[in-house]
């Protein structure tokens, strides 16, 4: 587990981009935290960290449920908040994306046990003030420990 205080949005951006640097195809990143905690903001910065040009808008997949990008790897960004059941989840095709080597960012993935089981690393955001957030990075599976170790090394250099 890695716990940090992010004093402002720039700190969130730095962490997200550092995480992006150590991600590999097939990694699922689960983003948790209440409304406005910063899940989409964190994902946007990670998407840019994966090499997507910053002229590309990265917005909440609230209605489309899934947005896709091409960086150094294919990228998916899903928001499962409005998803009703496992059948709809299946139809989104996230499994295929991951299987084909995409990095997947999932907001509200804890709602679905199947999705949660695939999640390598959890990014849990908590609001401390208007600008500050607490973040906990937790491994969901063995790959998550490797991600967090590599990230910690990256942050300390
Ligand atoms: N340190 C910070 N890190 C991330 N976002 C911050 C920070 N400080 C302020 N913010 C602001 O908080 C808001 C976070 O919104 P965002 O859409 O990323 O949240 P979310 O967790 O995805 O919410 P939702 O559950 O609605 O999808 C943005 O307006 C962002 O500018
Ligand atoms: Mg969001």
User: How far from one another are the termini?
Assistant: 19 Å
- Look up the CATH topology: Rossmann fold
Q: Give the name of the CATH architecture.
A: 3-Layer(aba) Sandwich
Helix content: 25-40%
CATH H level, superfamily name = P-loop containing nucleotide triphosphate hydrolases
Order of helices and strands: EHEHEEHHEHEEH
Q: What is the CATH class designation?
A: Alpha Beta
Oligomer: single chain
**How many β-strand stretches?**
7
How many structural domains are formed by the residues? 1
Describe this structure in words.
It is built from six helices and seven strands; from the N terminus they run βαβαββααβαββα. By secondary structure, it is an alpha/beta fold. The chain has one domain (2-155): 3-Layer(aba) Sandwich (Rossmann fold), CATH 3.40.50. A seven-stranded mixed β-sheet has the order 1-7-6-2-5-4-3. The protein is globular. The mean pLDDT is 96. The protein binds adenosine-5'-triphosphate and magnesium ion. Magnesium ion (MG) is lined by residues 39-40, 60, 79, 107.
How is the secondary structure organized here?
Elements: E1 2-6, H1 9-22, E2 28-32, H2 39-49, E3 66-70, E4 74-79, H3 86-92, H4 94-99, E5 103-107, H5 113-118, E6 121-127, E7 133-139, H6 142-155
Bound molecules: adenosine-5'-triphosphate and magnesium ion.
Features:
binds magnesium ion; binds adenosine-5'-triphosphate; seven-stranded mixed β-sheet; 157 residues; alpha/beta; Rossmann fold
What's the short story on this structure?
This protein has helices at residues 9-22, 39-49, 86-92, 94-99, 113-118, 142-155, and strands spanning 2-6, 28-32, 66-70, 74-79, 103-107, 121-127, 133-139. By secondary structure, it is an alpha/beta fold.
């Amino acid at each position: 587990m890695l716990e940090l205080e992010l004093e402002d949005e720039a700190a969130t951006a730095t962490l997200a981009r550092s995480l992006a640097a150590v991600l590999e195809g097939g990694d699922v990143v689960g983003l948790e935290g209440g409304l406005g905690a910063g899940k989409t903001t964190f994902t946007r910065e990670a998407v840019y960290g994966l090499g997507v040009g910053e002229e590309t808008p990265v917005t909440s997949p609230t209605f489309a449920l899934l947005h896709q990008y091409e960086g150094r790897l294919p990228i998916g960004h899903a928001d499962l908040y409005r998803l009703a059941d496992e059948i709809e989840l299946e139809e989104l095709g996230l499994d295929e994306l991951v299987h084909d080597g995409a990095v997947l960012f999932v907001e509200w993935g804890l709602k679905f046990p199947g999705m949660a089981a695939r999640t390598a690393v959890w990014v849990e955001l908590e609001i401390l003030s208007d600008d500050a957030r607490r973040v906990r990075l937790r491994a969901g599976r063995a790959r998550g420990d490797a991600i967090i170790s590599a990230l910690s090394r990256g942050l300390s250099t």
